[in-house]
Specification:
- This protein is about 50% helix and about 10% strand.
- It is built from 13 helices and eight strands.
- An eight-stranded parallel β-sheet has the order 1-2-3-4-5-6-7-8.
- Helix 11 links the parallel strand 7 and strand 8 (about 265).
- Helix 2 packs parallel to helix 12.
- About 45% of the residues are buried.
Length: about 300
């Protein structure tokens, strides 16, 4: 049997002016790398293709003029990397969500001119939830272009952080608050009617679905009725969402996701450089699942979803 094609979807970099307060070593250096180190660590784990996106929150929350300029620059950096290393990289576009009409134009440019495979959004947009009607033009365009939108975690709103995480700052970020924020954005989208308006819209959630495969049945039993949804909440999750394995190295979570979503809806990811390529690849290679499902997760599903 031939080796599976391995494709990773939640793999980050930073525009040099958006690195923020991260230390230069080791994360800062890795996020700025669009060449030798990135490729070397992909080779160590047998990753054939990496879809690059900006780490949280990129340009999306900046003032409109800066957001537009830096989104274009960010996407051009990814496009130059794709061109320099043919067959090794793809791109998820950064969008200036504080300027929604310009965000639509940049999404169309990224897909139709740069050959990107979708877009990645980091939670709320300058405090505005993703189900807000000002963003529905982006969703309509993504449906028409037949590309997915990756909903990626970001920090919680200040009021939420103060109410729930004061005194326990470790809860903010990966592990808890990121999961809560992303799952909440996904649920709001399902409750908003966006998938009734755009039934072919495709969404991706990382980190084994941000806990929703575990919770979706109970959410369905309660939220569908209370929100007056046209269809069961679980149907939207099954039909409009894919999930990735990024940096959630839990066999019980993987098995739960397989039972709830099915193998065709699960995609391999790492969350590089915040997680190890080798450790994430070893997790899937050693998981107690069938070789058919393993090949789907490692790359075949991504080939289909992203039209690679």
């Amino acid at each position: 049997m031939t080796k599976p094609r391995v494709i990773a979807l939640e793999e980050h970099f930073s525009h040099p002016s958006l690195l923020g307060n991260l230390p230069m070593k080791p994360l800062g250096d890795a996020l700025l790398d669009l060449g030798e180190r990135r490729l070397r660590e992909m080779e160590e784990a047998g990753i054939d293709l990496q879809v690059i996106s900006h780490f949280p929150s990129g340009p999306q929350n900046l003032a409109p003029a800066d957001a537009v300029r830096l989104s274009i620059e960010t996407n051009d950096l990814i496009a130059a990397t794709i061109e320099k290393f043919p067959g090794r990289f793809g791109g998820f576009a950064s969008l200036p969500l504080t300027a929604p009409l310009e965000a639509e134009r940049e999404l169309e440019r990224a897909i139709t001119q740069l050959g990107f495979k979708g877009t990645l959004l980091h939670g709320m947009a300058a405090g505005v939830p993703l189900d807000d009607k000002r963003f529905w033009g982006i969703y309509e365009l993504a449906q028409n272009l037949d590309v997915p939108i990756y909903i990626h975690p970001d920090v919680p709103p200040t009021a939420v952080a103060e109410a729930y995480y004061t005194g326990h700052p470790a809860l903010i970020g990966p592990g808890w608050s990121f999961t809560v924020e992303s799952a909440t954005q996904a649920l709001r989208l399902m409750l908003s009617g966006v998938f009734d308006a755009f039934p072919r819209l495709k969404m991706i959630l990382g980190h084994m679905g941000e806990s929703l495969p575990f919770s979706i049945v109970r959410c369905d039993a309660n939220l569908t009725r209370r929100a007056g949804l046209k269809r069961p909440l679980r149907d939207y999750f099954h039909e409009n969402f894919w999930i990735t394995t990024a940096a959630n190295l839990s066999t019980p979570a993987l098995i739960c996701s397989l039972l709830e979503m099915g193998a065709d809806r699960i995609l391999f990811s790492v969350d590089w450089p915040f997680a190890s390529n080798v450790e994430n690849r070893n997790f899937i290679d050693n998981a107690p699942i069938s070789d058919i499902d393993r090949r789907k997760i490692l790359g075949a599903n991504a080939v289909s979803l992203l039209k690679l």
